[in-house]
Amino acid sequence: MKTIKIFDTTLRDGEQSPGCSMNLQEKIEVARQLEKLNVDVIEAGFAIASPGDFLSVQTVAQTIRNAKVASLSRALTKDIDRSYEALKDAVAPRIHTFIATSPIHMKYKLKMEPDDVLAQAIEMVTYAKSLCSDVEFSAEDASRTESEFLYRVIDGVIKAGATCVNIPDTVGYSTPDEYYNIISGVMSHVAGIEKVDVSVHCHNDLGLGVANSLAAIRAGATQVECTVNGIGERAGNAALEEVVMAVRTRHDIYECKTNVDTTQIYNSSRLVSTITGVSVQPNKAVVGKNAFAHEAGIHQHGVLANKETYEIMTPESIGLAENTIVLGKHSGKHGFAQRLNTLGYELDDKHLKRAFSQFIELADRKKEVTDMDLRALVETDSIDIPNEYEIDQFVITSGNKMTASAEMTLVHGGKQIKETSSGDGPVDAAFNAIERCIGTSFKLDDYIVRSVTSGKDAQGEVVVKLTTANNKKATGRGLSTDIVEASVRAYIDAINKYYYELKLEDR
Ligand code: KIV
Ligand code: ZN
């Protein structure tokens, strides 16, 4: 059976979308998870965009062993040089270069004539090829490009040495039938097309990203570009988990497979959602909370009689192991480690020790620790960033007939800093007291609180998104059975991430 390559762009197209930014450690953690997922290509970033982007592409390139690592570059020598510089330690580097080919983009954005665009595409692919044997070329806004011109561009870049040509639906404008014809047209009109990978990259503006990608596979595409949970510019990109599970579930139609280890899908989805703080809608295909929940009595009855009545794929196939064992405070370290293993987490000794002590602390507050609690506890556990500020202790008072106040003690550079503040409720008072301790204020862009499981003793998970005075963004996360404590932890986490990024930039 033909194998479709999966090109993951969560760290580039996904990360560049609003509210999805990640710091260096988080990007590495996501890249490691993508390696476990066994994607073929990881697009690690846009190296020239900033020193931070360069460093993350470089670090991912140095870390990943089992996937190609790509960096995006406009069709300019300075971009290609920067990508190559960042990628040169990769086991399998790929330079990805692009230029727009649609009339509207060429006229208004590039202000270039079509022949000049063609010449630049060829020149830059030739240049990239002189540095790196694996070169992908993207004809940006290909789906709105005149077909004869698209064929000329693709033909030219293949002759110049491109190993992969991408025909993106940049603005999510195409429909499955139309996109099928676009890809078929390229397959039948461009000489030498069978020697290169034909890639598709579909945005989801009309909710057709996955459908268009699947139509393209039927038309002969050999690579699909997608992101975990479908994050990406505007309405996002085709969701990796949906493309992969559609191909797997309907191999009778698509007659192909991917190399993805589907049992890593659920953990990948959770990790990206936890790190970005962008939650997955409950009815999201494949990875949503309700994707395998059968509510209606008639459905439950059917599933009990035979799962296939209403289940077209199993939760186990995406790594959502069914479990009836619940851990409690008497569960030993061995049972804890084994459960984590079943859930797909492999922690080294240091992290296992830390996670176990957090688990014991949680089991003291909560009678039953479920799989969801465990996932929440460990999924970002291996992201170690040095803490500029630690919480020592806090006392918060609030009520309906009083002004909330907070007394906060933080530890910074081995010294205690204690401040008090009032606020509009306990969370506001706590955040104000933290800012007094630090001596800086932040803009709170978003504050999200949700419970990890059901029940009164459930852990609360708080995600905080901040903008700093110098316009940097940081996302923090805190967990606790007490949501005020979870909020304090999330705020401090975001602040620590900000200081960590600052230090990296100063290096
Ligand atoms: O959407 C798009 O066209 C892109 C290209 C740069 C591949 O992201
Ligand atoms: Zn894109």
Mind explaining what this structure looks like?
It is a single chain. Helix 9 (209-219) links the parallel strand 7 (197-201) and strand 8 (223-226). The chain is of the alpha/beta class. The mean pLDDT is 94. Helix 3 (51-63) packs across helix 4 (77-87), helix 8 packs parallel to helix 9 and helix 9 packs across helix 10. It has an 8-stranded parallel barrel, surrounded by 8 helices. A 3-stranded antiparallel beta sheet has the order 10-11-12. 47% of the residues are buried. The protein is built from 18 helices and 15 strands. The chain has helices at 10-14, 24-37, 51-63, 77-87, 103-110, 114-131, 147-159, 176-189, 209-219, 240-249, 251-254, 265-276, 297-305, 333-342, 349-365, 371-378, 426-438, 483-506; strands at residues 2-8, 41-45, 68-74, 93-100, 135-140, 164-166, 197-201, 223-226, 256-258, 389-397, 404-412, 415-423, 443-451, 460-467, 473-480. It has 3 domains: 2-276, Aldolase class I (TIM Barrel), CATH 3.20.20; 324-384; 390-506, Double Stranded RNA Binding Domain.
CATH class of the largest domain: Alpha Beta
Estimated radius of gyration: 25 Å
Oligomer: single chain
Distance between the termini: 49 Å
What do the pLDDT scores average to?
Answer: 94
Number of beta strands: 15
**Inertia-based shape:** globular
Q: What name does CATH use for the topology of the largest domain?
A: TIM Barrel
Biggest sheet, open or closed, and with what strands and sense? 8 strands, parallel, barrel
Q: Number of helical runs? A: 18
Q: Kindly state the percentage of residues in helix.
A: 40-55%
Q: What's the architecture of the largest domain, going by CATH?
A: Alpha-Beta Barrel
Which small compounds were modeled alongside the protein?
Answer: 3-methyl-2-oxobutanoic acid, zinc ion
What is the number of domains?
Answer: 3
Strand line-up of the largest beta sheet: 1-2-3-4-5-6-7-8
The CATH homologous superfamily of the largest domain: Aldolase class I
